[in-house]
Each structure stands twice: as C-alpha cells, then as structure tokens.
Amino acid sequence: EKDGYDWFMRKEIFEQPKAISDTLLGRYSPQGELTLDEIHISPETLRRVNKIIILGCGTAHYAGMVAKYAIEHWVRIPCEVELASEFRYRDPIVDSQTLCVAISQSGETADTLQAIRHAREQGAKVIAICNTNGSTIPRESDAVIYTYAGPEIGVASTKGFTTQLIACYLLGLYLAQVRGMKFGDEIRTIMDELEAMPAKMQSVLDHADQIYTLAKGMEDEEDFIFIGRHVGYPIALEGALKLKEIAYLHAEGFAAGELKHGPIAIINPGMPVFAVVPPQGRDQLHDKVVSNIQEVRARGARTIAVAEQDDNEVDQFAEVVISLPKVSTLLQPVLAVVPLQLFACEIATLLGNDVDQPRNLAKSVTVE
Ligand code: BG6
C-alpha cells in the first residue's frame, strides 16, 4: 500500500500534486465564480465580519500564518493567527462579528476543538478546514471546507499542509468575492495560478534527487537553521518542524529580519542555513533575504537557498540553490515547502528513524 515507497510520508509528499488538484476540483465555475458549497454561513453574516482569528496546532498553525498574509491582502479584514492551545486561556476578544477559522487535518485535535467551542460560546462563527470527513471539529463548526488530500498516514503532515494552504487561499478569495472586493479579474488570475500549481509542484518533485544528494552527509549535523520573510517565514518554521518531528534534530526557524536581533549569534562555521527566497524583482523582500544569506554566510554558515528558477542574484551568495517554478509571492509556500519535506524525510531515513511513526508523537492528539 506504500506503492513502492519506503515510507508513507514519502508517498504522501509525492501525492501532493493530486491532493491539490482534488482540493481545487469543482470549486471554481467556468463563469468565474467560487462555489464553496460547504460554507453554510450567509453572505450577509460574512459581510459583517470585522475580524478573523485562525486557530490550529503544529503544521496547521503554520498554514494559518500563511493564510493571514493572503487574507489580509485580498480581503482587508484584520486577521490574527493563534495557537489553538493558547487561545481560550487568555480571554480573547471574540463576538458575533468574529470569524474563526479552525485548521485541522485530523479534525480531532483537542486543543483546536476546545478553542472553537470557546469561540462559538462567545457568538463567533467557525469555519473548519479539515481533511477528515465527519470528524469532530467540522461537526462542531458552522461550516467546513474539506481538503481532499486522502488519508494521511505519516505522522508528520505533508499533503495535509499543502492542501490546507489551498483551502485557505480558496477561503480568502471566497470572502473577497462575497464582500464584493475590487477583484473579479484578479480572482481569475489567482485561480489560474492555483490550477497550474499541481504541474509546477510535480516539476519540483521531479528534482527530488538533488535534495537527496544534499541530505547525504548532513545527517551528522546537530543544528539546522531555516530563515524566511513574509510567507517564507512560516515555511521556515515548517521546514524546522519537519526535521524536529522525524529526524529528532535541533532545528529552528526564524524570521530572516530577526537574525540581527539575536539568532545570528548562534551561527557557527559550517552550520546549515536554509533560506526561503521570495520571487525576484517584485518588491524589496527578495533583496532583503539575499542580504540575510550574505550575513550568515559571512559567519561561515553553509547556505542553501530555495528560490525561484532563473534568480540571477541568489546563486552568487548561496552555496546550493534549489529552484522553484515561477509563482506569485503569496502562493510560493505551496512549492517552497516541498524540498524541505523531502529533505527532512531523507535525513530521517539516513538516520534510521521510523519516519512514519516518530517517537513521542501521535497522528491525532485528543488530549489537551
Ligand atoms: C500534532 C501532529 O500532534 O498535531 C502534527 O504531530 C499536526 O503533525 C498537529 O500538525 C495538528 O494536527 P491536526 O490534525 O489538528 O492538523
């Protein structure tokens, strides 16, 4: 049932192009309208929303961090992202104009469930983004957007994550449509880009060997650093989380701009630093990350950049460049996370770990 793969996780990484196209299927009409049938919250209610709070744990929380950038940019509603386990213990400000978005692959995570119960008690509407039909979180939500990743067996989430990103983009575009934003043509452009995503992701997967070669010899490293800005920041966090989960290695993700405020002090000669580099030329983001690569390299770090193909600056500064097909900045996380998933899977394999069932972790955590 692993289809010739050594691990479910690796199989699931390679299933992502299909998982994404299944998640997009039937949600955008030829007339250019988003149809999210599972949103049983009236357009009037959605138009009254004045704050969005996104809740999740682990990988799902990072999907929420990406969603904040997209939703605030497209919909112009303030959006908070919070760890589900922190939410209800701090007396959060929630009322009937608040929309909560609960992201959970399993739909059974106790922290997330308790958070949405609290939100609904305060009168908020809750939309679940979930991969498990009929699980508890969607049942206790006002609406649900299902991801169609298929069963995810590896404990470390991969296709769960990328389909959550797709669902978050769909939700953002749907809210923009319902609220009659500027949009229209812009929604179509973004949908076209999303529909091209499975093929682009396939081309990243076709180069998996480059990542495996990179991993060889790196399994003896003790510390790994991941940096990124904007939507690349949650991807840096996710890259580090994958290594912690299955390779049991010390890995940290930082917002690249924070390096100089502390973390750069821990860089030792030879330490691997992965940088998620935004697309070139559209704003200052790219150049800022390239400078951060130079800064860590000057301290002797081994720099590995995940960057857009034909980026003609990054290869001057990064020792290794992993190329991604061109996409807009907000959508880049869907592609940028893939090499980091492959890297963690390969390092854990080289270390002889049980990749699918890492020590101390469970696929769904039903206790708070
Ligand atoms: C953790 C898993 O316990 O729960 C993570 O180890 C996962 O991989 C997190 O991201 C959240 O799970 P879910 O099912 O709510 O998305």
Automatic annotation (TrEMBL):
Catalytic EC class: transferase
Keyword Transcription regulation: no
UniProt entry keywords in alphabetical sequence: Aminotransferase, Cytoplasm, Glutamine amidotransferase, Repeat, Transferase
GO cellular component term, pick one: cytosol
Catalytic activity: D-fructose 6-phosphate + L-glutamine = D-glucosamine 6-phosphate + L-glutamate
GO biological process, one term: UDP-N-acetylglucosamine metabolic process
EC number(s) on file: 2.6.1.16
Entry keyword RNA-binding: no
Subcellular location: Cytoplasm
Catalytic site: K363 (for fru-6p isomerization activity)
GO MF entries: carbohydrate derivative binding; glutamine-fructose-6-phosphate transaminase (isomerizing) activity
Main location: cytoplasm
Residue stretches making up the SIS domain: 42-181, 214-358
Self-association and partners: Homodimer.
Function of the protein: Catalyzes the first step in hexosamine metabolism, converting fructose-6P into glucosamine-6P using glutamine as a nitrogen source.
Name of the protein in its database record: Glutamine--fructose-6-phosphate aminotransferase [isomerizing]
Annotated organism of origin: Propionibacterium freudenreichii subsp. shermanii (strain ATCC 9614 / DSM 4902 / CIP 103027 / NCIMB 8099 / CIRM-BIA1)
Residues of the full protein shown: 247 to 614 of 614
